[in-house]
Amino acid sequence: MASPARIPPAALAPGPRETPRPGESARARAPRANVVRRPRSSPRARTAAGPSDVSRSGAHLEDVILKNGRTTDMAHALWRAVLREGDLAVDATAGNGWDTVELARLVTGESSGRVVAFDVQPAAIASTSARLDDALEPARRARVELVLDSHANMTRWLRPRRTLEGDAGNRPDPDPDPDPGAGAGVVCFNLGYLPGADADRSVTTETGSTIEALRAASEALRPGGVVTVVGYVGHAGGDEETRAVKAWAAALDPRRFTATVHGVVNRINCPQLIAVHKKRA
Ligand SMILES: C[S@@+](CC[C@H](N)C(=O)[O-])C[C@H]1O[C@@H](n2cnc3c(N)ncnc32)[C@H](O)[C@@H]1O
Predict the structure, then answer these.
(1) Which residues line ligand 1 (CB under 6 A)?
(2) For ligand 1, atom 18, which residue shows the shortest CA distance?
(3) Residues 31-75 pLDDT 10s
(4) 204: left (phi over 0), alpha (psi -120 to 50) or beta
(5) Looking at the domain assignment, is residue 45 inside a domain?
(6) Residue whose CA is closest, atom 3 of ligand 1?
(7) Is pTM beyond 0.85 here?
(8) What CATH code is carried by the domain that includes residue 120?
(9) Which DSSP string do the residues of 26-39 spell out, in sequence order?
């Protein structure tokens, strides 16, 4: 794995891209030499987080359930209920950046809001960066930090920075227990592997580091914030990992957190949303 780094936007070359979606900018729709197409036949690929009509419409949970039941849309609906412009949001698994863009749209403004997105693969960081460049105007794009490091180390990266532009924070904070400031409104996980024909599917999230990261995420939340986890059961290790996430959530102190599980039960290998809400004092 590459060494940890906070990636300034200018340092990122365009990476692999997924098929453009309805509603993407004209720039995003322009033909590219290295477009990566997602196979249509795989249930895992269908659920791996490109925006649907529902998610782009700003729909609420009932619309998601009544229209398509997509698990990622359920997570997005929850984010919309929780996040406000100016918030901190964390994408623990940046992948191809669909979720990072959605978070950035919800929290960034001209001069407030911050998104920190993690991935262990340079290809994922590059793909997310390119998608952010397409989707966001520069002032908002500059408020999204991409970190090439495991989400298990997220606490070190969440301390408020003096500047979002410079390279002052190009290393993790050495303090293992920093003050995360006001705390995150959302920390999201979309588990599994990077979708895309050219992606390396041998790199997946792993139960041990996922649980470590979830512990950090639940502490990094502000009161009223949520951790969302989209867990997959259709690939090797995914079922075990999703069960471990549910067991972790089920053991949380009910005085501090409300943990819930959501998903479609009459579709084969349908992903599940595990949501952990940090109660207000
Ligand atoms: C299903 S994809 C995420 C999809 C993404 N949220 C999107 O909207 O496109 C899972 C990602 O988790 C990443 N990953 C695996 N282990 C990780 C770790 N320990 N820390 C951070 N990211 C990790 C993989 O490289 C992969 O890109």
Answers:
(1) 48-49, 92-93, 95-99, 118-121, 124, 150-152, 190, 192-194, 203-205, 209
(2) 150
(3) 333 333 333 333 333 344 566 655 555 667 787 888 888 999 999
(4) beta
(5) no
(6) 95
(7) no
(8) 3.40.50.150
(9) HHHHS--TTB-PPP
